[in-house]
């Protein structure tokens, strides 16, 4: 332990154990997943981030050792900890200069945004030395005045390589491509069980793998098209889940994007037609269902059922509106009569 303290001090890191962990210290080979909670503070005690409260949830941070996380010092300090251990690390500025960018990404994730939002057109180091705002006053101040930071870490779990499935962001290109069929099958199984929310998440993850690979290809090239043809059925499955969850406008957007590339995609027209019908776009729904029949006459009975269901809903809506107007006029007439006799 003394040798470790000396080594950390030489690196500009001071460690204080708050609560000892349990078991043996892992050797943390590359590929090890570490789940932990963290609290980041200025040296005056002011809290910058806390994973237990960020975004209104308490989701822990996860690191895959050896995957070159933007803040290398986090890999270094968790590698000195046992499972269950809580410790505070005060790290010199040379280790913390990139923290504002890391914090911005983590805050975006907790808010359900793109983790790279605000970082698209500027590399990390260039951004640190620019006046680009990170969208948070405290992070802008920290970016303008880099300083030592205190990280209070609690290691929750250490998972050895091969004992878990890698998250998309941590996969190599080959691992992403190989993972897609299995994720697709898992989504199908969940859909058959009636768990559309979990199925949608699986389809989304598979799409994310392929989209990540597609971004590295030139649009229209053979490899780009091949990936797009793999994405399309997954996206249609995702849309089916969203239809069943009542998220019709998302279905309209995704199906329209498919149709803009594949004008003969019957499933995209059918799902878009159902979404249009659900949000009272009668003319658009009829046009989509007509296109479905044009492309595949065998779907005539299915289209007929959808059209009848839409027409029944429209009649019911018109009936309700007539009743509402009738009551309104009756009430107005009664009020006028009362005013006259009064």
UniProtKB/TrEMBL annotation:
It holds the Pfam family PPIase_AIP. Residues 316-342 are annotated as: Disordered. Keywords: Cytoplasm, Isomerase, Phosphoprotein, Repeat, Rotamase, TPR repeat. It is an enzyme of class 5 (isomerase). One of its GO terms (molecular function) is peptidyl-prolyl cis-trans isomerase activity. Residues 31-85 form the PPIase FKBP-type domain. It catalyses: [protein]-peptidylproline (omega=180) = [protein]-peptidylproline (omega=0). The keyword Cytoplasm applies. PROSITE patterns: FKBP_PPIASE (PS50059). Residues 332-342 have a biased composition (Low complexity). SUPFAM superfamilies: FKBP-like, TPR-like. Its EC number is 5.2.1.8. The keyword Hydrolase does not apply. PANTHER family: AH RECEPTOR-INTERACTING PROTEIN, ARYL HYDROCARBON RECEPTOR INTERACTING PROTEIN RELATED. This is peptidylprolyl isomerase. It comes from Denticeps clupeoides (denticle herring).
């Amino acid at each position: 332990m003394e040798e470790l303290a000396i080594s950390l001090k030489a690196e500009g890191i001071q460690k204080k154990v708050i609560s000892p962990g349990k078991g043996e210290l892992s050797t943390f080979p590359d590929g090890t997943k570490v789940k932990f909670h963290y609290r980041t503070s200025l040296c005056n005690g002011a809290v910058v981030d806390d994973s237990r409260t960020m975004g209104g949830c308490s989701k822990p941070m996860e690191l895959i050792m050896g995957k070159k996380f933007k803040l290398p010092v986090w890999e270094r300090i968790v590698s000195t900890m046992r499972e269950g251990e809580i410790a505070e690390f005060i790290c010199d500025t040379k280790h913390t200069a990139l923290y504002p960018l890391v914090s911005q990404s983590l805050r975006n994730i907790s808010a359900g945004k793109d983790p790279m939002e605000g970082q698209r057109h500027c590399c990390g180091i260039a951004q640190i030395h620019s006046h680009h705002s990170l969208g948070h006053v405290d992070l802008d101040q920290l970016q303008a005045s880099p300083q030592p930071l205190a990280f209070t870490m609690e290691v929750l779990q250490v998972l050895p390589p091969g004992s878990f499935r890698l998250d998309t962001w941590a996969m190599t290109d080959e691992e992403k491509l190989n993972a897609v069929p299995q994720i697709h099958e898992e989504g199908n199984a969940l859909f058959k069980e009636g768990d559309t929310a979990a199925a949608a998440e699986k389809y989304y993850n598979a799409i994310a793998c392929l989209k990540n690979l597609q971004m590295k290809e030139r649009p229209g090239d053979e490899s780009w098209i091949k990936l797009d043809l793999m994405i399309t059925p997954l996206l249609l499955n995702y849309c089916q889940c969203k239809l069943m969850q009542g998220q019709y406008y998302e279905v309209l957007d995704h199906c329209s994007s498919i149709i803009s590339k594949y004008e003969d995609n019957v499933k995209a027209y059918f799902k878009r037609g159902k979404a249009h019908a659900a949000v009272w776009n009668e003319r658009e729904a009829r046009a989509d269902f007509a296109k479905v029949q044009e492309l595949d006459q065998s779907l005539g009975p299915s289209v007929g059922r959808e059209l009848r269901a839409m027409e029944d809903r429209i009649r019911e809506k018109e009936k309700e509106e007539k009743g509402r107007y009738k009551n309104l006029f009756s009430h107005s007439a009664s009020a006028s009569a009362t005013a006259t006799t009064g």
